[in-house]
Amino acid sequence: MQRPITVISNACASGANAIGHAWELIRSGQSERALAGGYDALGELVFSGFDSLQALSPTTCRPFDARRDGLALGEGAAVIALETLASARRRGAEIWGELLGYGTAIDQHHLTQPQPQGRTTLAVMTQACVSAGVTPDDIDYVNAHGTGTVLNDSSEAVAD
Questions:
Q1: Measured CA distances, 116 to 83, 109, 153 (Å)
Q2: Whole-angstrom Cα distance, residue 46 to residue 51?
Q3: 56 burial type by CB count under 10 A (0-12 exposed, 13-18 middle, 19+ buried)
Q4: In Å, how far are 55, 73, 95, 148 from 48, measured between CA atoms?
Q5: What CATH fold (topology level) applies to the domain 11-158?
Q6: pLDDT, tens digit (0-9, with 9 covering 90-100), for 14-30
Q7: What is the pTM of this model?
C-alpha cells in the first residue's frame, strides 16, 4: 500500500515541523498512522554558511549563558511513529507519550536573525497551547532552540 511522502525543509525546525505535519494528518482523519522525523548531515556548505554568519563557537556551546559565543554543529537523526489512540490500543502498543498540540510560524524579521522581542516565538507557543487546550501554567517543560548565539538566545529568553 502506497502512502504520500512529504519532505519538509525548515532548517532547525524541519524535524519538529515534520512531526507536527504528521500529527495534523492524524488529527484531521487523513491518516491513522504516520512516521515522522528529521536528520541533519554536515557538509562543507552547511559549515561554511554558519561560519560566514560567525555563529560557530570557538569554545563550547553554552545556551543562555552570559559568556555564550555561538553554536556547535552536529549530525543527528530521529524518526517516531505516531498513531491514533484507538489504533495503538488495537495493536496493544506501549504508549510512550501523547502529542496534544502543535504550532508553527515564519519569523519574517530577518533570514538569519529572529524577531528581537520574541514575538514570533511567543506566537508559536501560544498557538501550540491553544491547539492543545492548555494554558502556559500547565506546561512543565520547554525545549528551547538554545543555539548559544546572542540574537537567538535573547529573543527566546524574552518570549514569555
A1: 37, 9, 10
A2: 8
A3: middle
A4: 10, 11, 41, 18
A5: Peroxisomal Thiolase; Chain A, domain 1 (3.40.47)
A6: 999 999 999 999 999 99
A7: 0.88
